[in-house]
Automatic annotation (TrEMBL):
<feature type="transmembrane region" description="Helical">
    <location>
        <begin position="79"/>
        <end position="99"/>
    </location>
</feature>
<keyword id="KW-0812">Transmembrane</keyword>
<feature type="domain" description="EamA">
    <location>
        <begin position="163"/>
        <end position="296"/>
    </location>
</feature>
<feature type="transmembrane region" description="Helical">
    <location>
        <begin position="192"/>
        <end position="209"/>
    </location>
</feature>
<keyword id="KW-0472">Membrane</keyword>
<feature type="transmembrane region" description="Helical">
    <location>
        <begin position="161"/>
        <end position="180"/>
    </location>
</feature>
<feature type="transmembrane region" description="Helical">
    <location>
        <begin position="229"/>
        <end position="247"/>
    </location>
</feature>
<dbReference type="InterPro" id="IPR000620">
    <property type="entry name" value="EamA_dom"/>
</dbReference>
<dbReference type="InterPro" id="IPR050638">
    <property type="entry name" value="AA-Vitamin_Transporters"/>
</dbReference>
<feature type="transmembrane region" description="Helical">
    <location>
        <begin position="111"/>
        <end position="129"/>
    </location>
</feature>
<dbReference type="InterPro" id="IPR037185">
    <property type="entry name" value="EmrE-like"/>
</dbReference>
<feature type="transmembrane region" description="Helical">
    <location>
        <begin position="254"/>
        <end position="274"/>
    </location>
</feature>
<feature type="transmembrane region" description="Helical">
    <location>
        <begin position="136"/>
        <end position="155"/>
    </location>
</feature>
<feature type="domain" description="EamA">
    <location>
        <begin position="20"/>
        <end position="152"/>
    </location>
</feature>
<dbReference type="GO" id="GO:0016020">
    <property type="term" value="C:membrane"/>
</dbReference>
<keyword id="KW-1133">Transmembrane helix</keyword>
<feature type="transmembrane region" description="Helical">
    <location>
        <begin position="280"/>
        <end position="300"/>
    </location>
</feature>
Amino acid sequence: MSAATLALPTAAPRPGLVAGLAALAVTVLIWSSFFVSLRAGARAQLRPEELALIRFAPAGLGFLPLLVRRWRRIAAVPWPLLASILVGAGLPYFLIAGLGMRHAPVADGSTLIPGTLPLLVAVLGALLYRQRPPTARLPALLLIGAGVLVLMTLNHGQGELGRGYALFLLGSLMWANYTLALRRSGLSPLEGAALISTGSLALLLPWLLLHPPLGLLTLPAGQLALQGLIQGLGVGLVSTLCYAIAISRLGADTAAAAGALTPVLASLLALPLFGEMPGAGSLLGMALIVAGVVGASRPLPARR
């Protein structure tokens, strides 16, 4: 059972709720594959910006007509919110996550980035928008924090591994800011996806003109096709849209809780592909974080 299913009411679900939960399920599946594909790209010695080209080129070109049509509405959003959306889910976030995956295994990256989202959404909401998290959710958020400390302490998160952990937590902070900014912007899921995808491609192209993506030419055809399927189609088009739909239908807190099953699925995929068996520290930290995410996603008791 996923964290999202815990929020189902006993009565017939609303159409919007069903769409939101379906979007979360697709998002979790694609996120798990996302971390695996980042690790595969790092092991193949591809530069992060080369992977970014696979990620943003199809989506950026596909969303370009929509961005042109909706530009006046998008440009009316305050620029700090637009910047938070583009940075937090676009090219800068992708490069940070890709660099982190060069220093740490799939289990740790897929645990720290989506797993800490509920905690960081709550922290940023309180600091930036004075949105104090409900008292009932504080134990779950503390569990997430404890899981991070356990994972870093038992795994001796220093040196190479420590750099990976720092990059993963920075990536999660960026995604949390995007989650809050998209909700406050009033943009539709399609408009948000267009801004992220086409804007990231526009940022990436000048760099690639100076540093051609020659590494892609040496990648086996099968691996290139797999990366294109996961990054270009799955992450670039489908998950960007699905996560935006989940935010609009279920709210930022519940959408962030979609990360509960991501580390489990990603770790299961990484075991046969890379032979990466999570150690005791990773497993214990993952268990605490997943438990905290599930707790944070549960519906709050009704006020009397």
